[in-house]
Design brief:
2 domains, 15 helices, alpha/beta, Rossmann fold
């Protein structure tokens, strides 16, 4: 292992580790190819240069182009004068998306190649609120109680590879460092796989180890299997919803909320509260769930017929908010829905969120499991001109298919850098 500092557990933090070892799973470019891409991006612009890579690395390009990756932050409806921090930002897509709304959005990553490329993209996007810093999540160069939102997208599970020591203790150290930076009412947002994902149970290889069933079996069994097959210990620990709640509570967070990112945290269409049988039934009834594993899809299709509310236990990936208190726009008592009701707009029996059509946008659909009662769109004004009050709702094709009818504008307002529109 390379040179490094020490984290709160006393373990040595590796600052020059080689994350390219997982490039096969994630289809990342190797360092020489990334250097070529960076030089080409400087000359021709990052979007043009990236398009040339697409035929060879389509998934890599898709992830980098997706600045809507963290649109789920709009569930919190934070005003744009807040400070957001994306830890493990990689090539910067999620942080750049946050920069469409927040006046200050900082990306942190341990690899210089990624940080420098992310900074180049921010410069070319003229995203003045974005900054990128090389550091590890165990020792953030950030003042205590200075950040309003910390995001980690597919990062927490890798903590066990960043240093020696017990993987869970390292994950706790990482979470406690996030909490240190957060303001008293600040929120931590994690997007991460579920240990008992239907895909894993159906035999899809674990993306971290390329071994089947490893996340779901007892840790000791997983470790023995990994040592035999990979000659490495099993250290990329995942949890179920309850496990993530316990981990967050032990790290010092008072309240945790878990949501299902359907179908993946890197490419989701919907956000559903686990246990929301009406929302799951509606999505599957209308055949709107995109699946990437046939056996898992068949198992979910069978389960939704008999116990739709159990689907959340087998979600592929979760979105987890942790804070002193967590209130989201999916909650009936959220301020936005109280205001909607004053305009005579129903919040429905339940609500789910749809990916927005652009960075900094999200659509909330209120329904009863059979029909849609109303729709709320939220758009960061910094991501572009706010929709005109009389304009039709801007929706993705899949959201339009879910709603299934034309919408009439019922009310609109702008607040905290957000344009909120209500349709019935």
């Amino acid at each position: 292992m390379g040179r490094g500092a020490r984290c709160a557990t006393g373990a040595r933090i590796v600052t020059d580790f080689d994350l390219q070892a997982r490039s096969t799973e994630w289809e990342d470019l190797d360092l020489p190819a990334l250097e070529v891409l960076a030089r080409d991006s400087e000359q021709r612009g990052w979007r043009t240069a990236l398009a040339d890579v697409a035929p060879l690395r389509p998934f890599f390009v898709k992830r980098l182009e997706n600045l809507s990756l963290g649109n789920w932050h709009l569930l919190l409806a934070l005003s744009n004068d807040r400070v957001a921090l994306d830890v493990g930002c990689g090539f910067g897509s999620l942080a750049l998306g946050l920069g469409k709304h927040f006046n200050t959005a900082v990306g942190i990553d341990a690899l210089w190649s990624r940080i420098s490329y992310a900074a180049l993209r921010a410069k070319q996007e003229r995203s003045e609120g974005n900054a990128f810093v090389r550091a590890t999540g165990f020792d953030l160069p950030v003042r205590s109680s200075s950040v309003d939102l910390v995001t980690m997208n597919g990062v927490l599970e890798w903590a066990g590879l960043y240093a020696d020591g017990d993987p869970r203790a390292l994950q706790l150290a990482l979470l406690r460092e996030m909490k240190r930076t957060l303001a008293p009412a600040g929120t931590l947002a994690l997007a991460i796989e579920n240990r008992f994902a239907m895909e894993s149970l159906a035999g899809m290889p674990d993306t971290h180890t390329q071994m089947r069933l490893v996340p779901a079996v007892p840790r000791l069994v997983a470790d023995i299997a990994s040592r035999i097959r990979r000659r490495q210990p099993y250290r990329t620990w995942l949890y179920d919803a309850g496990g993530y709640r316990r981990l967050a509570r032990e790290a010092g967070f008072a309240q945790t909320r878990v949501f299902d990112l359907v179908s993946s945290y890197n490419d989701y269409d919907f956000i559903v509260s686990p246990g929301d049988a009406r929302s799951y039934a509606l999505l599957w009834k209308r055949s709107l769930v995109r699946s990437f594993h046939d056996r898992a899809a068949k198992a979910r299709r069978a389960l939704v017929r008999v116990l739709a509310g159990a689907l959340g236990k087998f979600a592929y990936a979760y979105l987890i908010f942790a804070s002193v208190a967590v209130c989201t726009v999916l909650d009936e008592d959220h301020e936005f829905w109280r205001r909607a009701q004053s305009h005579g707009v129903s919040s429905g029996a339940t609500r789910l969120a749809c990916q927005g059509p652009s960075p900094g946008s999200l659509t909330i659909v209120a329904h009863d499991g059979e029909s849609v009662a109303s729709v709320m769109t939220i758009q960061a004004i910094g991501a572009g001109p706010p929709p005109a009050p009389q304009a039709a709702a801007q929706l993705t094709p899949i959201a339009q298919a879910l709603i299934g009818r034309r919408l009439a504008l019922a009310a609109s307002w702008n607040e905290g850098g957000l344009a909120v529109r209500l349709y019935t």
